[in-house]
Amino acid sequence: MLEQRIQQHFVDSADLKYQWADALARPVADASQALLTCVTNGGRIMLCGNGASGALAQYMAALLVGGMERERPELPALALGTDVATFTAAARRGEFADAFAAQLRALGQPGDVLVVLSSNGRAANLVRAAEAAQEREMVVIGLTGAGGGELGRLLRDTDVHVCVPHERPMRVHECHQLVLHVLCDNLDQQLLGDEEIAT
Questions:
Q1: What is the pLDDT of residues 3-31, one digit of tens each?
Q2: Average pLDDT rounded to a whole number, residues 70-81
Q3: 43 near 109, Cβ under 8 Å?
Q4: pTM (whole model) above 0.85
Q5: Which of 8, 58, 150, 158 has its CA 20 to 30 A from that of 135?
Q6: Phi, psi of 61, rounded to the nearest 5 degrees
Q7: What is residue 111's three-state secondary structure?
Q8: Short-list 122, 175, 144, CA closest to 16
């Protein structure tokens, strides 16, 4: 019984990725282009999320700075909220829901990109972060699920929305991690050219 449940998780995750590969390819390509434009024009990539999405934001920042599979110069990326003193000071000045937005108002510049990760797009602090990024004339890349919520609705034509068509957070997070890998791989390919990766 337990083994069947485990196998079903593998099948469900694979099915979701396979079924939606075509539909998500265009927005992921648009997100790749936005990141490339940002780094080649001297911009910075900032990332944020809550809980597991926050961990994925930190993970992508690490891949951008440290590299994924290929040697390349470091890319300017920062996961917001990882500096507890700054994060709590920003929250103390107003309220917790404004903490990411405060960091973006302090650091964001036109041409920078904000990557926001949310399994449902409903968290107030992430919505405010996207609004602050838009005020700073940054491009916002929203990685969401469950229809995208308020975050998905506020994204402009100049932003990018990659919405995983699933309600379960675990499935959304699994797809988001794949998207982050694809974005990093696309950046490497566009900056460095084609190269065989040792397996």
A1: 999 999 999 999 999 999 999 999 999 99
A2: 95
A3: yes
A4: yes
A5: 58
A6: -60, -40
A7: coil
A8: 175
